[in-house]
Structures are given as C-alpha cells and as structure tokens.
Amino acid sequence: MAVKIRLARAGAKKRPYYRIVASDARSPRDGRFLEKLGTYDPNQEPSTVTLNHARVQYWLGVGALPTITVARLLRNNPDPAPAVKG
Predict the structure, then answer these.
(1) What are the backbone angles phi and psi of residue 66, rounded to the nearest 5°?
(2) Which CATH number goes with the domain that contains 27?
(3) Which ranges of 19-67 does DSSP label H, i.e. alpha helix?
(4) Is 54 a domain residue?
(5) Can you tell me the distance from the alpha carbon of 20 to that of 40, in angstroms, rounded to the nearest whole number?
(6) What does the alpha-carbon distance between residue 34 and residue 13 come to, in Å, rounded to a whole number?
(7) Residue 56: what pLDDT?
(8) Residue-range definition of the domain harbouring residue 26
(9) pLDDT value at position 28?
(10) Phi-psi region of 61 (alpha: psi -120 to 50; beta: other; left: phi over 0)
(11) What local confidence, expressed as pLDDT, does residue 84 receive?
(12) Is residue 15 domain-resident?
C-alpha cells in the first residue's frame, strides 16, 4: 500500500482549512485517512501550521511520500526539539 502525506480540505466555502493526513494514495482527497498528523490554516496572518513531528517522522521513516505542498510546509516548520540519539 502506497502512503502519502497530504492535505485534506475542511472548512467553509472560501474559508479553507486543511488537515495534514497520512492516507492511502488511492483514497479521495477528503476521504478516509490513516492518521491525522496536523493542521494548516492559510486564513490567519501569518498562516499557522501545527504538526505532530514524531508521527510525521514515523510515516516518513516507513516510506510515506509527502506531496509537494506538504513537503514545503514540513521544510518551513522544522521540529523545534529534534530527538537526540545517544
């Protein structure tokens, strides 16, 4: 099963609000997903992004591919406290 990390649209008409989700690549955009990883609200100034960095790293580690937009959001919002390997 191919897993993608992508945006699922929510919110009212002309007021988008997105959930960042891990889902099967064959599922519809706003359909069933495996896990909610965070949110993205482009309506606020500046845009707000909340992420569960541990779960995002897990999904990336098992081979999930982020979409171009999600990859940009991940790059612009790095983990504030990366795990220390020791």
Answers:
(1) -80, 150
(2) 3.30.1320.10
(3) 53-61
(4) yes
(5) 7
(6) 25
(7) 93
(8) 3-76
(9) 87
(10) alpha
(11) 67
(12) yes
For the chain, the residue count is 86
Closest among 69, 57, 50 to 6, alpha carbons compared: 69
Neighbours of 47 (CB within 10 A): 11
Residue 23 lies in a domain: yes
Find how far residue 60's CA is from the centre of its chain: 11
Please give the Cα distance from 72 to 40 (Å, whole number).
12
- In this structure, which amino acid lies at residue 16? P
Mean pLDDT by 10 residues, the chain (86 residues): 91 94 91 93 93 92 94 89 65
Q: Give the total number of structural domains in the chain.
A: 1
Asked if residue 62 is part of any domain, the answer here is: yes
pTM: 0.86
Between the alpha carbon of residue 34 and those of residues 3, 42, 78, the distances in Å are 9, 23, 23
Cα distance between residue 48 and residue 3, in whole Å:
25
